[in-house]
Amino acid sequence: MSLWSLAEVAQHIGARIVGDAAVIPVSLSMDTRTIESGACFVAIRAERDGHAFASQALANGASCLLVDHELDIACPQLVAGDTLEALQRWGQARLAAVAPREVFGVTGSVGKTSTKELLAAATGAWKTPGNRNNTLGLPEALATLPAATRTVVLEMGMSTPGEIRRLTEIAPLDFGLITKVGGSHLENFQEGPRGIAQAKGELVAGLRPGGVWVHLATDDWCRWISLQPWAAHAKPVAVGEGCAYGWEAWESLGAQGERFHLRLPEGRFEAELKLRGAHQVRNAALAGVLAVLAGFDPEAVVRGLGEVAPEPGRGRLDGLQGGGWLLDETYNASPDSILACAAALLALKGGEPVAVLGCMRELGRDSERLHQETGEALRALGLQRLWAFGDQAQRLAKGFGVGGRAFPDFESLRDDPMGLGAIPEGARILVKGSRFWRTERVVEWILAHCGTEGKG
């Protein structure tokens, strides 16, 4: 089975075809800036109306359009009443037609993408690219799922209740993994952490009867999920100390990564990770255990875990002049993830351990408290200086105490004599923050001004 022509797609999504029905899209995209040649441009009505960008999409290489009304443009078009619903049906139908033997779902408040990468490597699976983990990106990726795909690993994210439930309707799951139930998107849940647990638990509710899911033994909210009536059809497996499944003999290899033994009823299997930090060991253990529970060979599983390399924004390590290190964790931030990455920084050999942080978002009415507590915790861990920028920078710096500096925005952080230019040579530097603050600009500045001696 090859990729579908527009004629085949139309049968699955109930669309009308305008123009050449034999066109076969190579991919789908909602972004004219990154669309690839031969893709189908999906015009979504959101903050901006995608239909207004159809001509630009064609100029950038799109071969056809998915629209909710026929456009006066000379190109093949799929016309459906609701393009979002049509997109979701397209991805759903394609997954059902390819019919992989195993479909895994990964969610959690932290570490979803890294864990997805680890699980995919452990199982040799096709995986959702990048962070296509929502009700737009996931079906967009599934719509051109390669034929004869045996195993699929899907990252499933959410910011409001019901999103993961919809994702599991699009992609019913055989196996599930929850990295951790934390405080991300707290402002969107009136019930607080319980509401977040309920929303993450939608992944478990979406498992097929008899499906298996794994979680950390220390995660109280995951244990709460396992006891809910709507989770009774699935089998929970706790991973950690005192359990049949877990990890032990963990050893930091510094810039080279981590070493540990994956503990299974079958025995203990040594694994080495290129990813860094105790949090990545936990993620790898969860991924490895679930892969073995799904029937994959433990030796192949630990080899796969060791193949995953850190990406920009997700743990990439750059050597700096004077023997320093830059740990790039700029993709996003929460209190848990900041502290986990700070602990990974401290495992590196080098000079003064410092952090440059953009503030966190979506923490609700507890935002000020959580920023201040995060600053306090960073100081307690052993970091020696903190540069913070954004709307809660004062709170981060106040919690950190002596050595904490606050700036209202990146430009101030960059230009102030006490800003980025004051970071000591040879320092070990963690850079992290919400995507809103575009913390990757800090990484670009440091690399441009401090030079690189190598990458990890």
What's the short version?
This protein is of the alpha/beta class. The protein folds into three domains: 6-86, 3-Layer(aba) Sandwich (Udp-n-acetylmuramoylalanyl-d-glutamate--2,6- Diaminopimelate Ligase, Chain: A, domain 1), CATH 3.40.1390; 100-305, Mur-like, catalytic domain (UDP-N-acetylmuramoyl-L-alanine:D-glutamate ligase), CATH 3.40.1190; 316-455, Mur ligase, C-terminal domain (Protein-Tyrosine Phosphatase, Chain A), CATH 3.90.190.
Based on the structure given, which CATH architecture of the largest domain is correct? Answer: 3-Layer(aba) Sandwich
Q: State mean pLDDT (0 to 100 scale).
A: 95
- The CATH superfamily of the largest domain is Mur-like, catalytic domain
CATH class value of the largest domain = Alpha Beta
Task: Give the count of structural domains.
Answer: 3
**Which class best fits the helix and strand makeup?**
alpha/beta
CATH fold name of the largest domain, please? UDP-N-acetylmuramoyl-L-alanine:D-glutamate ligase
**Uncertain stretches:** none
Profile the largest sheet: 7 strands, mixed
Strands, count? 21
**Overall geometric form:** globular
Q: How would you characterize this protein structure?
A:
This protein is of the alpha/beta class and 456 residues long. It has three domains: 6-86, 3-Layer(aba) Sandwich (Udp-n-acetylmuramoylalanyl-d-glutamate--2,6- Diaminopimelate Ligase, Chain: A, domain 1), CATH 3.40.1390; 100-305, 3-Layer(aba) Sandwich (UDP-N-acetylmuramoyl-L-alanine:D-glutamate ligase); 316-455, Protein-Tyrosine Phosphatase, Chain A, CATH 3.90.190.20. 33% of the residues lie in helices and 23% in strands. The protein is built from 16 helices and 21 strands. It has helices at residues 6-13, 54-59, 83-98, 112-123, 137-142, 163-170, 193-200, 202-205, 220-226, 278-293, 298-305, 335-346, 367-381, 393-400, 410-415, 440-450, and strands at 16-18, 28-29, 40-42, 64-67, 77-79, 102-107, 126-127, 151-155, 173-178, 207-216, 235-239, 246-252, 258-264, 267-273, 316-320, 325-329, 353-358, 385-389, 404-407, 428-432, 452-455. The strands form four sheets. The protein has a seven-stranded mixed sheet with strand order 19-18-17-20-16-15-21, with helices on both faces. Strands 7-8-6-9-10-11 form a six-stranded parallel sheet, sandwiched between helices. A five-stranded mixed sheet has the order 1-5-4-3-2. Helix 2 links the parallel strand 3 (40-42) and strand 4. The radius of gyration is 23 Å and the shape is globular. The two termini are 40 Å apart. The model has no long low-confidence stretch (mean pLDDT 95).
